[in-house]
Specification:
The protein is mainly α. Helix content is 25%, strand content 0%. The protein has 1 helix and no strands. The longest helix has 14 residues. The radius of gyration is 19 Å and the shape is flat. This is EXOS6 protein.
């Protein structure tokens, strides 16, 4: 049976996204005085994309 070489192999083990979100929240609390305004995670943000031909 031929193998599908187009697929990328994933990690052997995976962690839930909530684990990384909790770690990021702790880092944000530590850097509170960094001068950045808090951002609403549900707020819409602009998306910039460029369309063109790939060569």
């Amino acid at each position: 049976m031929p193998l599908d070489h187009r697929r990328l192999r994933g990690p052997e083990e995976s962690q839930p996204p909530a684990l990384w979100a909790a770690a990021a929240a702790e880092n944000d609390e530590d850097e509170e005085g960094a001068g950045s305004a808090p951002r609403d995670p549900c707020a819409l943000r602009p998306l910039f994309a460029r369309a063109g031909l790939l060569s």
